[in-house]
Each structure stands twice: as C-alpha cells, then as structure tokens.
Amino acid sequence: xxxxxxxxxxxxxxxxxxxxxxxxxxxxxxxxxxxxxxxxxxxxxxxxxxxxxxxxxxxxxxxxxxxxxxxxxxxxxxxxxxxxxxxxxxxxxxxxxxxxxxxxxxxxxxxxxxxxxxxxxxxxxxxxxxxxxxxxxxxxxxx
Length: 143
What we know:
- This protein is α+β, with helices and mostly antiparallel strands.
- Helix content is about 20%, strand content about 40%.
- The chain has a single domain (about 5-140), classed as Immunoglobulins (Immunoglobulin-like).
- The longest helix is centred in the first third of the chain and has 15 residues, at about 5-20.
C-alpha cells in the first residue's frame, strides 16, 4: 500500500490536469470593444498570440441567450488588430416599449483542431438614423 501525503496528492492531481487537457490561451483577445456610428456598429479587437487559431466568428444577440453568426474573420496567424462592421443594425421592433435596443456581441475563437471558445460579451446601443428608422418601420408593417 502506497501512502501519499496531502501535498503529493495535490501535485499529482495538478499534473494529471496538465497532461489530460490541452491548454488554450484565454488571454488571446484584448481590447474587444464596440462603437456605435450612425446606422452601424464597428467592433474592434486585438490579439496577443494567434498560434493554433483558424478564424473568428462574430456573433450578435438581443437577449444574451440566443446568438446568431454575423460573419467570419480569418486570422493573420500573428498578433493583429481586427475590425468588423455590423451594417445590419435596425430600429427596435414595433411595439417594443422597453426603450433603446441593445445588441450583445461576442467572438467565437475557432482553433485549427476544432476546439472553440468565446470572449466575454460586450453591449452596444446602436444609433439609428431617422431614414433607417422609418424604413425599418415600413418593413415591419408588411411582415
């Protein structure tokens, strides 16, 4: 019978975790921000290291639960700055009395081995021009 001290057990468990789970850098993305310009939202982010990354999926939600893919941005495979412009910003739905619409954005980092992880979400309240707002209202009437 082999006896382990508490210290050895912790070290052994730590070593198993390191061997069993591939380690992905959770600090790859820095400064993920969104800026509302008239009729669009500009998302900007920087990377520190893109080793093993294949691409980024830009996703948007209005409730924080259901996210939809807006587009794909290919990696440069080195520390880089990126920008994605969301031009599909529309006025809030007719009858929505909750105030301004808030969009929630996140990035899905997709690795070459198929693994993926998400950034923390950010919130942006878009500014809609009166023309776009009117057009959105007209389209809503015919749905």
